[in-house]
Each structure stands twice: as structure tokens, then as C-alpha cells.
Design brief:
The relative contact order is 0.11. It is globular, with a radius of gyration of 21 Å. By secondary structure, it is of the alpha/beta class. It binds NADP nicotinamide-adenine-dinucleotide phosphate (NAP).
Length: about 300
């Protein structure tokens, strides 16, 4: 049996990401003990009932006491206040990390509260589903997915390496990235697509009032995939857009320009423009499949009824 990477890991916030971490940590025997804290009594009760962690505490400060690694798994906007609350209880030499979808904002909110002698290694696993809460997690969520580490200047390389070992133990491929670059890349690959999905589903919802239930009844694969993305947690995504404002607006500006160009091609009957564009985008899909980040199975590998 392999040696645990950390003696005690504290998970603060017990939603999809933290619960998947708890399962993956146990699967890989990566911690001597896992402690946990969630804000609401209901979530703490659920976590106790499903035996998600070895011990669940009623305060974040108690959960982090004596932990070697503390992972903040709350919405991006809540990271700073939670960090402020736990700071006095952190063990010297401990590492604080997070899983927030935006990095520059989290660094600015968390870093000022990190006590002397405690390491801070921000991280972001590029894996998720549209489900939330402590029962949504599963051990395989991070298998063959990327986890990006975003160390701040002057971070102890040993603390970074140890966190890398943990994520690799949970099945992830690990890379390092600068915070601003991370936020721009994620604006393209995740944040703007989510906003577009939210918009498309909102438009269909307005239309539904005109066409009765046809939008739901004849929902084709394209729209169904938008609805899955648009079912993602409202709090998490509100915080993502409020805290990755510049990069998201930059990408949405480009998106709007391209959309106008395609709109114009449709209006003027420019089939060549449309065909060339769709040929270029089709190649991107092939690239994602070749990189092992999705399945080539028809209907995204879904059964016929799902
Ligand atoms: P989740 O399932 O909705 O769980 C969020 C957890 O944070 C819950 O335990 C919740 O407590 C707690 N929480 C919410 N607001 C809080 C506040 N103001 N103060 C303290 N605790 C609060 O969310 P998740 O999907 O695990 O996301 C957690 C983090 O992972 C977010 O930063 C998100 O950006 C990042 N992330 C998400 C995904 C994804 O696809 N879901 C992927 C990568 C990274 P209660 O249950 O008690 O309300």
C-alpha cells in the first residue's frame, strides 16, 4: 500500500468538487485522515450520513486545526472570507490550496490572509458536472482530466510538488500556469461557453411561451447539451462572471464579432464562408478527441434514452 501524501487533509465546502476529492483521496489512500466542513447544517448532516469524511466539524476553523493540507472548495466569491476565518487556526508548515474556477481573484482575496510559514498553492481541476452538493461526487471525476496549479511567486517548490503528487494520485494530469493566462484560457474554454449556453436556453424559454411545449418536446441534441450546461450551479457561475470579468468580456467581444460575420454570411447567402468556417471548427472537435478529453462515440457516448 502506498504512503499517504498528507497526514490530514481538510476540505472546506462539501459540494461536487470536494466530495469527488474525498472519494478519490480514499481510493488512492492519499491521506491519513480527511476532515470536512460545510456552511449549512443540512450539508454537514448529509456528509455525515454518507460518511464522506472521517470527521465533519461545525466550524471551518475546527476542521483545519492540525491539517497538513487545507483545500478551499467554496464558490470563488466566498474564498476570501473563509480564508480569513481559518487563518488563525492553521498549522505552521501547512499548505492552503483551492479549486476555484478563477485564479487571479482568488489569489488577491486569499493571499493577504495567509499566515507566515503557511504555503499557498492555488489550483483548478478542469472537471465537473452540472450537479452540486456532497452526494454529487464520485471518485473518477478527475481521472485523465487536467488539474492546473497556479503557484504564486516565491512559493516553496516542495509544497507545489506535494500537491502535484496528490492530484496525480487522484487520477489527474497536472500542469502549471500563470494566473492571468489561466483566466483567459478558461474564459475561452469554459466561462464564455457557459454564458452562451445560459443565453440560448433563456431564448428558448422565452420562445416556449410562444410555441407551448415544443421546445422541450422536440429538444434535439444541440439544445439538450446547452440545457445540461445551463443547469450548472447559479452561485458558482455568478461568482465566475463577477470575478473573471475582463477575460470573459474580451472573449465575448470576439464571439459577438464572429457571430455578426456568420449572420451576415447567412443573410447574403455566402455558403462558402459558412462551409469554410464549419470545416475549421470540425477539426477542433477531432483535436479534443485525439487528446483523450472526450469520446468519439455518437451522441457523446450517451445511451439512446438519456
Ligand atoms: P457546490 O457543489 O455548489 O458546493 C459548494 C460548497 O460551498 C457547499 O458546501 C456550500 O455549502 C459551500 N458554500 C457556498 N457558499 C458559501 C459561502 N458563501 N460561504 C461558505 N461556504 C459556502 O460547488 P462545487 O461545484 O463543488 O464548486 C466548488 C468550487 O469548485 C467553486 O469555487 C467552483 O468555481 C470550483 N469548480 C467547480 C467545478 C464544477 O464544474 N462544478 C469545476 C471546477 C472547479 P452549503 O452546501 O452548506 O450551502
Amino acid at each position: 500500500m502506498t504512503q499517504p501524501v498528507y497526514d490530514r487533509i481538510a476540505l472546506i465546502g462539501l459540494g461536487l468538487i470536494a466530495s469527488s476529492m474525498a472519494h478519490a483521496i480514499r481510493r488512492g489512500n492519499l491521506a491519513g485522515e480527511i476532515t470536512g466542513y460545510a456552511r449549512s447544517e443540512a450539508t454537514r448532516e448529509t456528509a455525515r450520513r454518507i460518511n464522506l469524511c472521517d470527521r465533519i466539524f461545525d466550524t471551518a476553523a475546527d476542521a483545519v486545526e492540525d491539517a497538513d493540507l487545507v483545500v478551499l472548495c467554496v464558490p470563488v466569491g466566498a474564498m476570501g472570507p473563509v480564508m480569513e476565518e481559518i487563518a488563525p487556526k492553521l498549522k505552521p508548515g501547512a499548505t492552503v490550496s483551492d479549486v476555484g474556477s478563477v485564479k487571479r481573484h482568488v489569489i488577491e482575496a486569499v493571499q493577504p490572509h495567509i499566515p507566515q510559514g503557511v504555503h499557498f498553492v492555488p489550483a483548478h481541476p478542469l472537471a465537473g458536472t452540472e450537479h452540486s452538493g456532497p452526494e454529487a461526487g464520485f471518485a473518477e471525476l478527475y481521472d485523465n482530466r487536467w488539474c492546473l496549479l497556479v503557484p504564486v511567486e516565491g512559493t516553496d517548490p516542495d509544497a507545489v510538488e506535494r500537491l502535484r503528487t496528490l492530484w496525480e494520485g487522484m487520477g489527474a494530469n497536472v500542469d502549471e500556469m500563470d494566473a492571468d493566462h489561466h483566466d483567459l484560457v478558461l474564459a475561452v474554454t469554459s466561462h464564455a461557453p457557459h454564458l452562451i449556453a445560459y443565453t440560448m436556453v433563456g431564448v428558448a424559454d422565452d420562445l416556449r411561451r410562444v410555441t407551448d411545449s415544443e421546445v422541450i418536446k422536440y429538444s434535439a441534441a444541440g439544445f439538450r447539451d446547452f440545457t445540461r450546461i445551463a443547469a450548472s450551479d447559479p452561485t458558482m457561475w455568478r461568482d465566475v462572471f463577477l470575478t473573471n470579468k475582463d477575460a470573459t468580456l474580451e472573449i465575448l467581444g470576439r464571439f459577438t464579432e464572429e457571430l455578426f460575420a456568420l449572420q451576415r454570411a447567412i443573410r447574403t447567402g455566402d455558403g462558402e464562408h459558412l462551409h469554410d468556417y464549419f470545416t475549421r471548427t470540425r477539426a477542433i472537435r477531432r483535436g479534443i478527441i485525439e487528446a483523450g478529453q472526450d469520446t468519439a462515440a455518437p451522441n457523446f457516448g450517451r445511451g439512446t434514452k438519456s
